[in-house]
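Page 47, continued from p. 46.
Same chain as before, 302 aa.
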Amino acid sequence: MASPAPALSFDRTFLPQTGEPVVLAEGITRITAPNASAYTFTGTNSFLLGHERLALVDPGPDDAAHMAALLRAIAGRPVAAIILTHTHRDHSALAARLGRTLDAPLWFGGRHRLSRPLRRFERNPIRRSCDWDLVPDRTLVDGESITAGDLAASVHSTPGHCANHLAFAIGSDLLSGDHVMGWNSTLVSVPDGSMADYFASLDKVIALPQHRYLPAHGGPIADGRAYATALRAHRQLRNGQVIAAVEAGASSIAALVAAIYPDQPLPVRLAARMTITAHVEYLESLGQLTVRRGPFGTRIMK
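Result:
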């Protein structure tokens, strides 16, 4: 019999030391941006990789104070590349300006793209948060080895949160971006993201040897593989709750959110609506739900 998944427990005790360089491991330094919000927690974590020659992962929002903090931490050392886990603007908005300042190329997993085409009458609810016009100087691909500053790293494609999401393995650490975060479960908003892709990417990182995860929001996750396993079980629990709510009579996304997330504050309910929509689409793809879509809304049936 398979062992039960560990219980999911979020850690919201993280103290970001905003704007200050924090050494996490030999050659890995974190600087947290001052863009705290309901969706970014204490702010976006930027990472400097290397010693005498650097790479910068996720430069973050286009914020003058954060740019100054990054330049202080770089301290004149050459930056070989600016690397992105993905192209949501809280990670990428500063990339082009900082790239020009540092004369550093942009490396990431290709231009921002949807996980699937828009349907008729559909819109992307997070379209304004996406960096559509940013173009990589080098497109990183799954499984390749790169030199990040003067550190060896491997690239792992982890779509789900969005289509071009990447994670980076360095020694025993995995820079997990927004794919796995310890402070909360990850937003999956269709069609920008995909729940089917998210499950597949969780399985992928769980199978990697790296045990400590360094996410782009919040603090390190000491046992990342166990946490990702618990996160996967949590998502499967949500699938079961969606099916149970539909069987009990919920026939719309709004009704599902009300059944599964009662009495939650508005920001949580907005995020929940997006993620529940992704769960419904995933369950539809498995043949476990039937969905009728039209200009006036969506009807969900078992």
